[in-house]
Every structure is written in C-alpha cells, then in structure tokens.
Amino acid sequence: MAQKTNDPKLTDYSVTDALALIDRRFGKDRLLRDLSTPTERLVTAYYLQSRWGYERYNPHAAMHMALSDDGKYTHDGLRAQADTVIAEARKIGARRILELGCGQAFNARVIAEALPEVEVVATDLIEAHITKANERGAHLPNFRAVRSSFTELPDDLGQFDLIFAVETLCHSPEIDAVIERIKARLAPGGTFMFHDAFRRTDWESKSDDLKEALVLNELCLAVPHGYAVWGTWEDALARAGFTDVTTEDISMQGLGTCRRLGRVGLKFLTQWKYRLLRPFVPKHLARNAVAGFLGIYIMYGGAADPASENGITRYGLIRAVGPNAA
Ligand SMILES: C[S@@+](CC[C@H](N)C(=O)[O-])C[C@H]1O[C@@H](n2cnc3c(N)ncnc32)[C@H](O)[C@@H]1O
C-alpha cells in the first residue's frame, strides 16, 4: 500500500485496503445483517435517513449520478439523464410523460420546464419525497407528483407516451411484475427507458474482494437483493412483448461522480471530525459513506487505473418500445 499522508487519497487504497477500513469503522458483519431486512422497509428507512445527504449532494436534490465525458463531477452533469428523456420525448412527440421513483423529482421538473406543452407526472414510494417534489415544482403548471410504488401504478394515472426511471428500478427484485405495471400504463407503441446500475455478466468471475465490495455497496444503497445482471431486464422486456430493446453502456460517464463520492466517503471514514460525529449520524445516512467510497471500485476496479472492464458493475440506459394494441 502506498504511503499515507494526513489527507488520504482514493488512490492510496486498493479494494482490499478499502474493505479493511470499512470493517474497522463499521464492522462488515454488522452491515451484512441488513441483508435479511425486507426490501421495502430497508428502502424507506434508507431514504428517510439519507435525505439530508442527498440535499447536500446538490442544491436541487437530484439523487442520481452526474454524467460527463471528462471524468469530472459538475452539477450540470445531473441533467444528462433528463436531457436524454427530453430528446426522446421530442422524437416521438410525447404528450404525457411518467417518471417512476422520482425522489424530489429533479428529472421530471427539468423535463416539465423544457417541454411546457407536455404533462409530466412523477411518482415515488415515499410521501416525504412527493411533498418536497410538489413544493419544488409548484411553479410548473404541467407538473405534479403523486405517491405510488412502481409495483402499483394505479389505473387512474391514465396512459403515457413515455415512461422513464433513473436509478430506482434496482430497488425491486420483481422485474416481470414491474414490467407488467409499466406496460399497463404505457400507450401502445410508447417508449420506456431507464438509467440504472447492473452487475456485469461476468461478475461471478471477479475477485472475492470486488464481490464483497459489490454486496456492501448494494446493501448500503438499500438494494439487498443486488443489482440485476446486465441483460436480465432486456430479456424480460422482450418476453413481455416490448420491441426495439436497446442497451447503452455509459459506465465511464459516471467516473466524475464516483470520484467525488469516493472522496467524501473516504473523508467520513478517516477524518477525526467525522468519526467523532458518527454516533449522532443516523445509521443509513452514515452508511452512504461506505456506498460512496466503494462506488469507484465496483464500477472501475479502483481510482488508480479506472476502467469499466476492471469493475464488477455497469451503468447503462435501457430503452424499449411498448407493445402495440392487439
Ligand atoms: C436513487 S433515488 C433516485 C431518485 C430520482 N429518480 C433521481 O434521479 O433523482 C431512488 C428513488 O426510488 C424511490 N423508490 C424506491 N423504491 C420504490 C418503489 N417501489 N416505487 C417507487 N419509488 C421507489 C426512492 O424513494 C427514491 O426516491
């Protein structure tokens, strides 16, 4: 291991060193106990306790990766996912758009502002997110947020020309059931698209350390069943009658975010100031330091020589066209 300074750097830590540091600060076994917590309970506790962190991650409470081509984080990069949806909406002439798992609806609000003639409805499991989303979007007449799990999506929401999601569908292990709900709300031939993290198809052949880092990252982000394996969603969409299913691997565009969150996580794990505060920090908020620190390892194998093929996960955009009316 390289010589440590008072201000440790991500590049000082191999994945083995990173896991050892996490074990010293949090106890890996203690963290792993949450693997048996029911998903919805874990998701709700995680997001309620993490709100302070997400609101500090950026001023508009976006809760997803900023994307860029230069390996640097900027708040502007948080618009990338919404910009892709806007381009698709313009292409297909969408009149109604639905966001699943919207958080405080950063994406839906960006879209509603860019497309004032389009009705944008945002949904989320957590009432507190919906309240904040509606407060933040109160000036947008074509926007509203409604509480609904993406496993429910009631019929009275109507049908949408475009349904999208950003870093939320990973929270459900029930892929086929979620696709059926989406299909019921998608207008014939409409577009479904989502950005998310996935396990690489070769994830099982990676080192034990990387696999352990993966499980800890997933768990500390309230995904106890693990990210879906790359290709699983595509197969399920095709089985459900979706066509033109495409996947774009945009893993390298998340490097700037992983560097930023990795540095924040490392600071929290090493600096005295944060270590003294730790007993007063809610459990799931504190565990974001683990997830943030490990992101660069699971996505790129580490900070020293980051490359997508060195990681165990990918970040991608899946797009599919809904079935036409029978
Ligand atoms: C990482 S945040 C992303 C939020 C938003 N998409 C964004 O990009 O800012 C994931 C969101 O998914 C929501 N979520 C988790 N499980 C859900 C479910 N079953 N139905 C609806 N929303 C869910 C959480 O409450 C949280 O707001």
From TrEMBL:
<dbReference type="Pfam" id="PF08242">
    <property type="entry name" value="Methyltransf_12"/>
</dbReference>
<protein>
    <recommendedName>
        <fullName>Methyltransferase type 12 domain-containing protein</fullName>
    </recommendedName>
</protein>
<dbReference type="InterPro" id="IPR029063">
    <property type="entry name" value="SAM-dependent_MTases_sf"/>
</dbReference>
<dbReference type="InterPro" id="IPR013217">
    <property type="entry name" value="Methyltransf_12"/>
</dbReference>
<feature type="domain" description="Methyltransferase type 12">
    <location>
        <begin position="98"/>
        <end position="192"/>
    </location>
</feature>
